[in-house]
Design brief:
The structure holds two protein chains of two kinds. Chain A has six helices and 15 strands. Chain A is an alpha/beta fold. Chain A has a nine-stranded mixed β-sheet, with helices on both faces. In chain A, strand 10 and strand 11 form a beta hairpin. In chain A, helix 2 crosses helix 5 and helix 3 packs across helix 4. Chain A is globular. The relative contact order of chain A is 0.18. Chain B is an alpha/beta fold. Chain B folds into two domains: 182 residues, 3-Layer(aba) Sandwich (Rossmann fold), CATH 3.40.50.620; 120 residues, Rossmann fold (3-Layer(aba) Sandwich). Chain B has eight helices and 17 strands. In chain B, the strands form four sheets. A seven-stranded parallel β-sheet of chain B has the order 7-10-6-1-4-5-11, sandwiched between helices. Chain B has a five-stranded parallel β-sheet with strand order 14-13-15-16-17. Chain B has a two-stranded antiparallel ribbon with strand order 2-3. In chain B, helix 5 links the parallel strand 13 and strand 14. Chains A and B meet through helix 3, helix 4, strand 9, strand 10 and strand 11 of A and helix 3, helix 4, strand 7, strand 8 and strand 9 of B.
Amino acid sequence: MKILVCISNVPDTTTKITFTDNNTQFNTSGVQFILNPYDEIALARAIELTEPNNGSVTVINVGEVGTEPTIRKALAIGATDAVRVNALPHDAWFVAYQIAQYIKANPFDLILTGRESIDYNGSKVAGMIAELLDIPSVSIIKKLDIDGNSAIVEREIEGGKEVLTIPLPFVAGTAEGVAEVKIPNMRGIMSARTKPLNVIEAITVKTLSDVISYETPAPRGQVKLVPADDVPQLVSLLHEEARVI
Amino acid sequence: MSVLVYTENADGKFKKSTFEIVSYARAIATQLGTKLTAISIGDVSATELAALGKYGAEKVLNVSNDKLKNFINQAYASIIADAAKKENADIVVLSNSFSGRGLAPRLGVKLEAGVADGAVALPNLSDGKFRIKKTAFSGKAFAIVELTSANKVISLTPNAYKVVETNATATVEDFATENKATDFAAVIKDIVRATDKVSLPDADIVVSGGRGLKGPENWGMVEELADLLGAALACSKPVSDAGWRSHSEHVGQTGIAISPNLYIAIGISGAIQHLAGVSSSKVIVVINKDAEAPFFKVADYGIVGDAFDVVPKLITAIKQFKASA
């Protein structure tokens, strides 16, 4: 079994998000970049699914050379090899197009992404890759098991879950519940240095969208504190002032 | 040129988020001086379909057959793309729901369209551009995205746009299209939906519990409070990681991002990762015994006190309020 896991290099979850150049550039100064947390779940499940049958897990990232520490982290966790498409990830369409072209030349049994990246939160790469390859996709899965040539997945729906069987290959975006993330051990960290990391050049693709600028949320006013011995006052405030109940 | 809106249903009924996107799509059609068509797939009654006119749809395309009763990502995407072509629609609007997140990227590729996901406002059309504000960095910021393609796909964040009602009705037409056999490769085996519970992503009110509640056995009062308010339940990451509550209730940067009208956080300190997922809530109430908890800095209302003392009092106060209302 050959699984491809698409990974993103994103700001650490504790990052305070600020912008420069008149709010047109994300301020990366002092920002620690990490493997996207949802992609870690995808990677952990891919390793679990391939370990018993001597399969392989390839990770692919669209990014410039600065993303290599994150790619090495994925190799340390247990990916077999890695591919970096050498380009800035312009948008989901650009990224999905590069990955889909790679898959056309190098077929996989299963393609996993995280449910979304924690920087742009688009949830788009999985569906776009699948549409480009004309194979099924499922946007947010909570459980993934392989049964012969198909998989049983649980998809998140509003207020519940849906159980689907899907023939391989397909593309899925993983969420919490699919697997526990794996911490790299010393052997993994040592071997990651020598595992193959192939760098390929990007293919030119028509641009469909551009990020023009950023905004930060308007700060809230001072909190209004209600004494713990006068809880009914909170109910009045929510009803009369905030008008939310 | 026209606007097409996909109106999602749950068990044959439209939800509030559906009326939000129809109202939103109506406003875009008005901005562009064009017409709005809705498309519904599944088993929805004629009355329910015609009522979409109230929110601004002039025409409703109804796709109804047994094979399409439940959401099948590939098949639904093909039908919506075919409808967009038939209606000469250059803008397709849908909800950034779990299903919408499956459809939007496939539609983007099918229609060679730029996709703005998680939109929170109407597009800005000045200077002949099409620019739209969307959530980014898991709620810590917004990005202004320009769609430069001729066709455009927009998915709207639930609770980001107010429902606008008129007294119009829509004409309903049947719409049928040929699906490829491969569109039905994924097969639904089971759907488990708790019909008595409010769904978290599109809830108006959310009541959320954290580690301060000490253990899963103490959730009874949180559930009672949520029931009283018609609210959905949520929790912080440590709570779902500890297995006290299901992952599907985890809100925050690596869980679900929500934007309800009212978010009540009980025993949650307000780590930056948690705030990211809930900061677009319109009103935030924090109940925490630690006056220094960072959550108080971003809250609208707060009570410094022990949850085990404050929550029962809050339940009583709400019961009294409801009895007198």
